[in-house]
Specification:
The structure is a single chain. The chain has 6 helices and 5 strands; from the N terminus they run ααααβαββαββ. The chain has about 280 residues and is of the alpha+beta class. It is elongated.
Length: about 280
C-alpha cells in the first residue's frame, strides 16, 4: 500500500503560503511607499488586510505541520503493524499446515520402532512451536506481531532470540503503536550491536512483565559493553556508537515515549551483557 505523505503535503502548503505572504507584503509596501497618491483610505486598509490574512494563513500552516507529521508517523506505523500482522498470520497458518505432516512423521517413526529419532523430531518441532506461542501471550495483536517479526529477522541474522512474557499488557497506558516503536527500536539496536560478533553466539533475551506498581520490559544482549560514561549520552538525539547503525534516534525516541507516560528507560552494561529496561506506572 502506497503511503500518503502528509508531511510533504503540509511542507509544500507552508512554503506556498509563506511565498504568497512575502509577495503580497512586498507589493503592499511598494504600493504604499511609491504609489500612495492614487490610493484611497479603503484601498490602503484592503492591502493591509490582505497582508495580515496571508501571514495568518502561513502561521496556521506552520501550526498544523506538527500534528500532521504525527499523523503521518501513525499512518506509517499502522502500515508496518499491518504488515507484521500479515506475516504473523502466515506463520501461524504455515505452522498449522505443517502440524499434520509432523504427526505423520512421528507416527511413522514410532511404527518403525525408531523411538529415539521420534523423540528428537518431537523436540525440534516443540521448540519451533514454543517460539511462536511464547509471543502470543500479550493481549495486543500488533505487539505480538512486531515481536514475531523481530524474532524472525534476528534468527535470519544468526541471533539466538528468546522471549519471556509474564503480562498480557491489557491495561498498559502506552498505546500499542507506540509500544511497537519502543520494542522495534531497542531490538534493532541490540541486533546491530551483535552484528560483528565472532567469538560467541549472539543472543537477545526479551522479558515483558508487570508488578503491583509498573508494567515493564527488559531487552538484553550479549554484545560489546557500553562504558558508564556513555550511559546518558546514548539517549541523546543523533548519537551513535560504532556498532549501533541507523541514525542514532531509536533510543532517543524510545525514552521520549516512555517518559511521556510517566515512566523511565535505563541501561545497564558490563562485560557479559547490556540491558535496556523500561517501566511505566500502571495507573
Amino acid at each position: 500500500m502506497r503511503q500518503f505523505n502528509v508531511r510533504k503535503v503540509f511542507i509544500l502548503t507552508v512554503t506556498l503560503s509563506v511565498l504568497l505572504a512575502i509577495l503580497i507584503i512586498s507589493l503592499t509596501i511598494y504600493t504604499l511607499s511609491f504609489r500612495t497618491e492614487g490610493l484611497t483610505e479603503p484601498e490602503t486598509y484592503m492591502f493591509l488586510a490582505i497582508s495580515l490574512m496571508s501571514l495568518a494563513s502561513a502561521a496556521m500552516s506552520l501550526l498544523l505541520l506538527r500534528p500532521a507529521s504525527v499523523l503521518n508517523l501513525k499512518l506509517k506505523q499502522s502500515e508496518d503493524s499491518l504488515d507484521d500482522l500479515d506475516r504473523l498470520n502466515k506463520t501461524l497458518r504455515a505452522q498449522r499446515h505443517d502440524f499434520m505432516n509432523h504427526l505423520q512423521v512421528v507416527h511413522s517413526l514410532i511404527e518403525l520402532k525408531q523411538h529415539r529419532e521420534a523423540g528428537d523430531y518431537i523436540e525440534k518441532v516443540h521448540t519451533s512451536i514454543v517460539k511462536i506461542n511464547s509471543i502470543l501471550k500479550t493481549g495486543l495483536p500488533t505487539v505480538n506481531a512486531i515481536l514475531e517479526a523481530k524474532r524472525q529477522a534476528c534468527e535470519n541474522k544468526g541471533i539466538d532470540i528468546t522471549v519471556e512474557i509474564r503480562s498480557n499488557l491489557a491495561k498498559i497506558p502506552v498505546p500499542a503503536w507506540e509500544l511497537c516503536r519502543i520494542f522495534g527500536n531497542i531490538i534493532d539496536n541490540a541486533a546491530n550491536a551483535l552484528a560483528h560478533m565472532r567469538d560467541a553466539t549472539p543472543k537477545i533475551h526479551i522479558e515483558i512483565y508487570e508488578d503491583m506498581i509498573n508494567y515493564g520490559f527488559k531487552i538484553t544482549n550479549n554484545g560489546p559493553s557500553i562504558p558508564p560514561g556513555l550511559w546518558k549520552k546514548i539517549f541523546e538525539a543523533g548519537y551513535k556508537t560504532p556498532d549501533s547503525g541507523g541514525e542514532g534516534m531509536g533510543l532517543f525516541i524510545s525514552r521520549q515515549i516512555i517518559e511521556k507516560y510517566g515512566g523511565m528507560l535505563k541501561i545497564f552494561s558490563n562485560e557479559s551483557e547490556t540491558s535496556f529496561e523500561g517501566t511505566v506506572p500502571r495507573s
